[in-house]
Amino acid sequence: MKYPKRVLPFLHNVARVSGLAAWQTGRLFRKTALAALESIQEVLRSEVKKGNVKLVADFLANKAMPAARTLLLERMAARLLVRIGLRGVLASNVVGWVLPFVLEKLLQLANKAGVFEKIKANDTVVDALHRLDELKRATIKVILPDAGSRAQVMDDDAELPKQLH
Asked: 3-class DSSP state for residue 147?
């Protein structure tokens, strides 16, 4: 595959100006994905606290009315924009690909576990909030698969473990 002559120098300059190595961008993705998950959870929890448990259950089951779904998505996007602290087109682009990714994983887990049925079956707001917390923990494990792997960052001059020689 041939690259245009200007693409590689442009990418090199962008990487140099940002000061990030390729391995450091994973940390940024994790941070942004967690911010997106927090934004989603914040909106869903606020709706449950207002008494709109059926709306949250329908949203998780992908059966919500289009107007309600659009309103919830706009609120999630607005909260994510505030959390990541970016402005302009860059912020819109980041929200445009991170929020759908995290929301898709959340909805897949909700459908697989039947969370919307459990939320509808619960009589109290506290039970519904507890189910949302369980869903959040499960989503974190899917988005960040290395959670709990005991991986650690080593110094550059640290001696490698025997398994890695």
From this structure: coil
Cα gap 110→115, rounded to integer Å = 5
- CB–CB of 62/107 below 8 Å? yes
105-121 pLDDT, tens digit each: 888 888 888 777 777 77
CB 68 within 8 A of CB 59: yes
**9, part of any domain:** no
Residue type, 159: E
Domain span at residue 34?
Answer: 27-145
How many whole angstroms separate alpha carbon 90 and alpha carbon 32? 13
Q: Is residue 77 part of a domain?
A: yes
Structurally, the chain folds into a number of domains equal to 1
